[in-house]
Amino acid sequence: MSVGPLAVEIICVFILSAYLLHRYSNWRKQHIVVTLATFVSWYFSFIIIFILPLDVSSTKYQQCNYEHQRIEEVSSLPFTNGSDIPTNYPRDVNGSLMNDNTTTSEIPYFPTTINATETTELTSVVRREVFDCGKPWSYVPDTILPDMWKIVYWTSQILTWIVCPLMQSYSRAGEFTVRGKLKAALIENAIYYGSYLLIFGVLLIYVAARPDIRLDGAKMSILLVTASNTWGLFLLVLLLGYGLVEVPRKYWNAAKKGYELSYIYFQIAKLSTEKSEAEENLEDVLDEIKKAAESIRYNHPLHKHVDTIMTKCPEDFQEKVGKRTMDDYEDYTSGDLEVPTQRTLVKLHSKVIYAVMNERRTHFEWHRLLERAFELEDVDKNAEGDRYYVHTFTSKPRRGLMGAIYSPKIEWYWKIVCKPWTLRALAILLATFSLAVIWSEVTFFNKHPILSLFAIFVDLAASNYNYFYIELASFLTIAYMSVCAYYPIFKIRVFNYYYLADHHQTDENSLLFSAILLCRLTPPLCLNFLFQFALPFNSPVMSELPGPHSSRQSYHWRRRNVRNFIYSNYGKTYGCIAIYG
Predict the structure, then answer these.
(1) What is the model's pTM?
(2) How many angstroms separate the Cα of 473 from the Cα of each of 164, 462, 525?
(3) In this predicted model, what pLDDT tens digit does every residue of 515-547 receive, in sequence order?
(4) pLDDT digits (tens, 9 = 90+) for 417-436
(5) How far apart are CA 424 and CA 363, in angstroms?
(6) With b meaning 16 or more CB within 10 Å and e meaning fewer, what string describes 283-305?
(7) Largest interatomic CA distance in the chain
């Protein structure tokens, strides 16, 4: 019994979340609450994925112990061919007696009757040697993971449905005080969630009016969790279906000669237009700020708000406008310029925050794409030259051990010869993995025989008590599914509203929006993963995750959840076929 692997994974996930947050955000200029909310959301979403394989191996170990314990209890009872047969001897889901070849993919149930003709078979089974299941090398005490799942799950739900949406509206608000920002955030979210509550209230009244359904606190909790998981399932259909195709295709296209360079040219042309629009938009906003600063003098009550707006502008503009306003000490009531209202300044504050951030991001993306285009052009030029890589623009020479190992000749062989074939092999491997995921998605509901590839591999390892292989197969599967599901979140751009740009160019709104998506997507993703491994509804790992799949809930709720997953997987397969077509 050791918590060492669990502690190592917790630390590794912490480092990974901190690295990604540092890569995409600019915590020095962003609000500390936004940074903390995003970090906790990312951290809890990633930690579920990393610790789930440990839980799967522990579940297989507990299933094995449970089955052998029942066999030991029956074997200790005295009975003969003519005597009564114990009625609680374990059987599989088909009703057959448990034997050495029985799979552990289903927890056995115990019938109330048994035929006397099975006495001989039962006697031989219960008297066999009971093997030791062996304890997983990363086994965690039973009391740790259930409490941990509850904390992680409910914290993520609070973040995704309450905290992050409020912080998102707070970061977009142009008010100048904390109270004003909170008021604007509450009003915006009240309108947003009011529609949800209206729909939920109508459905709740309909369900309560039916005489055949009785609602209590437990079923209300199930209903809320089911609604959240259903939202996540629809999101999973779109994102995972897209990622299963796009991730292998990305590496395959990168291996094509000239394809990536042509795509970079297209991105440069597109970004050039966006860059010009962002610069023009910023100039228009700065002109409005300049007029406001000229009309509101130093002793005007709203002058402090103008100073707040000025701090969000570029430094050269601040110096230029600041000198003109400080040299003029006319009374604020004089002049022909129209004095803007506080509401106008609030809108102007919101506009300048977005305009400055958009201009900086497009300017940085422009230079990054140019550098990438120059690099790809060098690859095309060197492909037709001697076996010696030459850079068009002088780069910093490599010195020491790195310069000796990665010489221009080695660089030529890697970029011209080895890298394209490596990318093709990786694309084929990932495409094979995507096909395995799709096959397991559409066949996991078939329990006899088990058709899900991942469930077959894990059951084979469980029969040999190879828990390390179980954890390895589980980690690779959930890791690839997570990469495919999260890939659109980090790559797709929704107009100018949401876009994750690396090198500290992501705004607060996009960071919080990504946190909302991750928290809503991860629980349905993990539940989908558990179904692919053919874990039963009443297994320990399934009981730990809140929701209608729990063994504490009724069979009606379980069937509804399975039906939702089947529909989602058909939609996912259809989405993949549509993208390939």
Answers:
(1) 0.76
(2) 34, 12, 16
(3) 999 998 888 888 888 888 766 544 444 454 444
(4) 899 999 999 999 999 999 99
(5) 33
(6) eebbebbbebbebbbeeeebeeb
(7) 113
